[in-house]
TrEMBL record:
Residues covered by region (Disordered): 1-51, 1082-1121
Function: Component of cohesin complex, a complex required for the cohesion of sister chromatids after DNA replication. The cohesin complex apparently forms a large proteinaceous ring within which sister chromatids can be trapped. At anaphase, the complex is cleaved and dissociates from chromatin, allowing sister chromatids to segregate.
Bilayer-spanning residue ranges: none
Lineage of the organism: Eukaryota, Metazoa, Chordata, Craniata, Vertebrata
SUPFAM superfamilies: ARM repeat (SSF48371)
Family to which this protein belongs: Belongs to the SCC3 family.
Protein name per Swiss-Prot or TrEMBL: Cohesin subunit SA
Any coiled-coil regions, as ranges: 277-307
Comp. bias intervals (Polar residues): 28-40, 1103-1116
InterPro entries registered for this protein in UniProt: ARM-type_fold, Cohesin_Scc3/SA, HEAT_SCC3-SA, SCD, STAG
Record's keyword terms, sorted: Cell cycle, Cell division, Chromosome, Chromosome partition, Coiled coil, Nucleus
UniProt KW Coiled coil keyword: yes
Length: 1203
């Protein structure tokens, strides 16, 4: 049994005397810590004990040191902590050495073990022991304390570790949460593994000898229980981990004893039957004795398990530290799985169920992993009915967890529950879980794909039982139909690529059965009444395309996962084999499919994307050119039948893929392409000739408009991928568009494709310009470029919205391409520098964005039916998509410096107002521009806020002050706060940008402050409230710099007792935040004691509504001190390296210039600065981003404050 602290009076007298005789020696531990006996009174006794202790320690250390030298190790390990942390020896030999020492002198060995646990907690203090039986019961309870000694500055804890009361003393700085278990790096990870292994081996090696001596385990459990109740995280975490691992090891011992007990019981019964009727023999007595011995040991082990569980687990499974809670839950899952007879009941399972609701993802993850181990065993699931019914809803909801790993493991747990628990998941639960195959997080989607495949698509016996009429594809056909049915029911038809990717790891075999899929498509209803419906055929064609793409590319679809993964050699081999299989099959089948579905635009558009995944060499090596002729013939017929953009683009891309000059089939495909384009251009020329003939009496019929529209769209689709310059398409389309500019009589159906054709024609001409082209060619191209730009600018004001938007998109792309050509020093070929730098063009583009993107159209309230409401909602989504495209096109011009970055200020104004619709685009623009130029980007942000502030000020009554509670001012502050959040947590990285915002903001706030000695109220003073939102992004040293810069705009004395000066007070306080703590720490350490007024005095004066009144002499003397303080490290209280000081002149590094209209009196003052050495600067920056980065970096920051 484990002795309780209050059980002193029940100890046997003989045992007390024995323990008292074995005096506890005083032995030194690592770093000067020691263990002392509290019962030794006389100096003679103490000297005798000390001599014995030194001999024992010398012998023990020598034994460990010799073993290290025998293994060839240079490092000498003396203590258990050193041996375990180094991991140089086999753990079993380490434990064997300790067991041997325990048998010789158990008190010395136990104290060695106690010090091991203390040192593993990272404690570098002192351990003192005093005998338990020497104290009365009341004294024992008074000793169980943990407190702080103010006189010595040490913290100590007294607790019971039977038969001693231990006192652990350590410095206060141990609370910095730095101890072995949480340290990073491979060494400390290995230490944790060695620590856990030591405990497991310790119990394993002691189970046959000293584990049941009613002394060892009592002491260890009391020690760990006492440490687990500590307020110090290091003690609590380390001892809890040790206790949980100890209980895990004891459970294993219990299992072995249980098996041995049952074996002994069987042998006893067999022997008893064998000698029935006879006298009891010696063997039967031995078996009975052994059986009772096992029962006694089991009782001892059960007591140990109960003690650890009740004293440690029940207190620590709800600890405030998530690592401790996770450790407890992880181990209880191991106990339940290892020893279900004792732990698999609701009394223990409830803890795992409760912790499924934990706020920390780590704890929830350990719960799910533990439950997976239980639900994976069918024989255990039947005993969890109550737990399953109680916590099923919680588990079903956990795939929605914000932590991805928790969501994945929850889905895997539900998979196990579905397999091993009958009807535990309802149909509604399954339908909800199936939808996770469409999630963007691939591991979760793959887990959901396994759930979907095993639960819905794959049924046992599919391979053996062939459906009626299924033929050789019976099983695959059945699975395909179920997959198609699920896909159609989910109504997420545009996400088929995500669905296939989720199922690929589990259903790759039948998803690659393209022969079955195409056979199912080509099957006639007359031959088989089970032919697919039109919707099923469309879905199956999409599935075929998605499976072909997945097999050929070998990486997830766009939006799921990061960049393309690097394929292994095996994966590349499989990919090549799949590509060959795809080519050989679809070369013969695809023309048949195109012929069957030639009139269905959606199906044809999907089927025409398959050739891009062909291995084109198969055409020539396999002598399959006849199938190529069939494919080209079908594609030509499809182009003639359709005018749908998706079909025409897919057809054009098919010709582009097949027209590869390095492939043997190039000449054959090129002839077919030329023949097709000749026919298309002939049709277009015929229509244009008819149009120009009746130009004066222009009146096109609907049929003629449709024909012209179709012809232009076909030509535009092919001009996108093929060079049609020799057909002189530019002149034909430019004549049409110029006619529209003059008369505005062409329908939109003709204008849009004509504009697209003209754009593609110029792109091909621009790409074909050689480096040394004759001037005549360049002048002709320049003339065409100017003409096209004028047409696009004119169409920006067209009466039709579609034309305006198309012209804007083409113009943005066109300017971006020309700027790229200009950046490659090809200005002779480009021309148009006046258009690229034209202010009027930039203004027109910006005005277009404001009117077509950010202008909110008034909605008319109408009573619409449900169907009309659905159509109206669809139209709104399409309109939003167009607006996002327009805004993205314009933002690209800003990012790539085609237009001035200051133009982004007008865009940023709508960041908060349109956050749901355009927030991601604006935020990405802000990020890209900041990456290009930090300073200019910061100036753009502050310009945006300044413009809003000026507009707000103009709307206010000139006689009244600024209303801080108005909606416009509140919106400005919110916008500034959002801008501040975009700088992230790295204050060092963004210090220049934030400093520039404060500099520009201060100058704007005091702009126009004229009057007698500059004492009048600046008109923009309330702008300081706006830029105060950026104060928390300043480093502490930079706050002092900005504060010093602010002081130069403040004339003294100032009559600032009114509310109108509150913005200055608030802004100043935001710069002086956390200054009290710093000042107190620095003053106590003797590094800096302000000679003038402190921050507290500043606060008192500001609280009265007035600025501190100082004379010019005082201000001059305080300025150096303020700048000196700004160079001190913000982490002075964390025992960091001292900063060395050096003098620098203000005009050399911080040239603050006086603005006009203000009297600033400090421009010639010199200030003292302190720089950090290279080593200390690098160390401080790595330790804390809030450290004051000075020295060379101050020169960089000084550039911000140059005017």
């Amino acid at each position: 049994m484990i002795a309780e602290p209050n059980a002193a009076t029940h100890l046997p007298g003989r045992k007390e005397n024995a323990v008292h005789d074995e005096t506890v020696p005083e032995s030194a531990v690592q770093n000067g810590s020691c263990v002392r006996n509290g019962n030794l009174k006389t100096p003679r006794e103490k000297r005798k004990v000390r001599e014995q202790c030194e001999n024992i320690r010398r012998n023990s250390s020598s034994r460990r040191r010799v073993s290290q030298l025998q293994n060839g190790e240079v490092v000498e390990a003396v203590t258990l902590f050193e041996v375990v942390s180094m991991g140089k020896r086999a753990m079993q030999s380490v434990v064997d050495d300790w067991v041997e020492a325990y048998k010789q002198d158990r008190n010395v060995a136990l104290l060695d073990l106690i010090n091991f646990f203390i040192q593993c907690s990272g404690c570098q203090g002192m351990v003192t022991a005093e005998m338990f039986q020497s104290l009365h019961k009341k004294d024992v309870m008074q000793k169980m304390t943990e407190t702080f000694d103010e006189e010595t500055g040490l913290q100590y804890k007294k607790f019971m570790a039977y038969p001693w009361i231990l006192t652990v003393t350590w410095p206060v700085d141990m609370d910095n949460e730095d101890y072995p278990l949480i340290r990073t790096g491979p060494y400390w990870k290995k230490f944790k593994a060695n620590f856990c292994e030591f405990i497991a081996v310790f119990v394993q090696q002691c189970q046959c000898s000293i584990l049941y001596d009613s002394y060892l385990m009592d002491t260890v459990i009391s020690l760990l229980t006492g440490l687990a109740d500590s307020m110090v995280r290091a003690f609590r975490h380390t001892s809890t981990l040790a206790a949980m691992k100890l209980l895990t090891a004891v459970v294993s011992v219990h299992l072995n004893l249980d098996v041995n007990k049952h074996n002994a019981q069987r042998l006893y019964e067999v022997e008893k039957k064998r000698i029935s009727g006879k006298r009891t023999n010696y063997r039967l007595d031995q078996l009975e004795k052994k059986r009772k011995e096992y029962e006694h040991k089991l009782l001892e082990i059960q007591n140990m398990m109960n003690a650890i569980f009740k004293r440690t687990f029940l207190n620590r499974y709800r600890d405030v530290i998530p690592e401790i809670r996770a450790t407890c839950i992880e181990e209880i899952g191991s106990w339940i799985k290892t020893y279900p007879d004792a732990f698999l009941n609701d009394s223990y399972l409830k803890y795992m169920g409760w912790m499924l609701y934990d706020k920390q993802a780590e704890v929830r993850l350990k719960c799910l992993l533990g439950l997976q181990g239980i639900y994976s065993q069918k024989e255990l699931v039947s005993r969890m009915d109550l737990f399953t019914s109680r916590f099923k809803d919680r588990i079903v909801s956990m795939p929605l967890d914000k932590d991805h790993e928790v969501a994945v493991q929850a889905m895997k747990l539900l998979m196990l529950m579905s397999q091993n628990c009958e009807d535990v998941l309802s149909a509604e639960d399954c339908e909800m879980l199936y939808q996770f195959v469409y999630t963007t997080h691939r591991p979760l989607a793959v887990a959901a794909g396994e759930f979907l495949y095993k639960r819905l698509l794959s049924h046992e016996g599919d391979e053996e039982v062939q459906p009626k009429g299924g033929g050789k594809f019976g099983a695959s056909t059945d699975q395909l139909k179920r997959l198609i049915g699920f896909f159609l029911e989910s109504e997420l038809h545009k996400h088929v690529a995500y669905l296939i990717d989720s199922l690929w790891d589990w259903a790759g075999k039948f998803l690659k059965d393209w022969e079955c899929m195409t056979t199912l498509l080509l099957k006639n209803a007359e031959e088989d009444g089970e032919a697919l419906s039109d919707a099923h055929e469309s879905a199956l064609i999409e599935i075929i395309l998605a499976t072909v793409r997945e097999a050929a590319e070998g990486h997830p679809p766009v939006g799921r996962g990061a960049a393309k993964k690097i394929l292994s050699v095996k994966e590349k081999k499989i990919q090549l084999e799949d590509c060959t299989k795809i080519t050989e099959h679809f070369i013969m089948v695809l023309p048949q499919l195109l012929a069957k579905y030639s009139t269905d635009a959606q199906k044809v558009a999907n089927l025409l994307q398959i050739p891009q995944y062909y291995d084109l060499d198969v055409y020539s090596t396999g002598h399959l050119t006849k199938h190529l002729d069939a494919l080209l013939r079908e594609v030509k017929d499809i182009v003639a039948k359709h005018s749908d953009t998706s079909v025409l683009e897919a057809s054009s891309r098919t010709y582009y893929i097949l027209c590869n000059e390095e492939i043997a089939i190039y000449s054959q495909v090129d002839r077919a392409r030329t023949q097709l384009i000749d026919e298309l251009m002939g049709q277009l020329n015929q229509l244009l000739d008819g149009f120009w003939q009746k130009e004066e009496g222009f009146c096109m019929e609907a049929g003629e408009i449709s024909q012209m529209h179709s012809a232009l769209r076909r030509v535009a689709a092919f001009h996108n991928a093929h060079d049609l310059t020799k057909w002189n398409l530019y002149d034909k389309t430019s004549r049409l568009l110029v006619f529209e500019m003059e008369h505005e009589r062409l329908p939109v159906l003709i204008i849009l494709p004509a504009l697209q054709c003209m754009y593609f024609s110029l792109l091909w001409q621009l790409a074909a310009v050689p480096e040394n082209s004759p001037k005549e060619t360049l002048f002709a191209l320049r003339r065409e470029l100017r003409c096209f730009s004028q047409i696009c600018m004119c169409f920006l004001h067209h009466k039709k919205k579609d034309v305006r938007e198309k012209a804007f998109m083409i113009l943005c792309d066109w300017l971006l391409i020309l700027s790229h050509q200009d950046s490659n020093n090809n200005t002779e070929a480009v021309g148009l520098p006046d258009y690229l730098l034209s202010t009027s063009l930039q203004e027109k583009l910006l005005l277009f964005i404001q009117e077509h993107v950010f202008m909110v159209e008034e909605e008319e309230s109408k009573d619409l039916t449900e169907e009309k409401e659905r159509k109206d909602e669809s139209c709104k989504l399409d309109d939003l998509h167009k607006k996002r495209s327009l805004l993205a096109a314009y933002c690209k011009l800003i990012v790539y410096n085609v237009v001035k970055m200051t133009a982004a200020a007008e865009i940023y104004k709508y960041y908060v107002k349109t956050y749901n619709d355009f927030g991601d685009i604006i935020k990405e623009t802000l990020s890209k521009t900041r990456h290009n130029n930090k300073i200019q980007s910061a100036k753009t942000l502050i310009l945006c806020l300044q413009q809003l502030f000026q507009k707000h000020a103009e709307s206010q009554d000139s006689s009244s002050s600024v209303d801080f509670s108005s909606a416009s001012f509140t919106n400005m502050k919110e916008l500034a706060r959002r801008f501040s959040l975009t700088f992230g947590w790295d204050q060092v990285k963004s210090r220049e940008s934030v400093a520039m915002i404060h500099k520009e903001g201060i100058e704007f706030a005091f702009q126009g402050a004229t009057g007698v000695e500059g004492k009048c109220l600046p008109p923009n003073l309330s702008f300081l409230l706006i830029i105060s939102e950026f104060s928390n992004k300043l480093l502490k040293s930079d706050k002092r710099l900005v504060y010093a810069y602010l002081q130069r705009y403040i004339a003294e004395p100032l009559p600032c007792r009114g509310d109108e000066w509150q913005p200055l007070i608030w802004y100043r306080n935001s710069l002086l935040a956390n200054e009290d703590e710093e000042s107190s720490v620095l003053s106590s350490s003797g590094e800096w004691s302000p000679a003038g007024t402190s921050k507290a005095s500043f606060k008192r004066k500001f609280s009265n509504g007035s600025l501190p009144e100082t004379s010019q002499t005082e201000a001059t003397s305080k300025a150096p001190e303020l700048q000196c303080a700004s160079r001190l490290a913000s982490a002075a209280g964390k025992s960091r390296k001292r900063l060395k000081s050096q003098e620098m002149h203000l005009q050399e590094h911080l040239p603050f210039l006086c603005p006009g209209g203000l009297q600033r009196k400090y421009c010639k003052d010199e200030i003292k600065t302190e720089a950090v050495s290279k080593e200390s600067q690098a160390e401080d920056t790595a330790e804390d981003v809030d450290v004051d980065v000075v020295g060379p970096d101050q020169v960089i920051l000084a550039r911000v404050f140059q005017l």
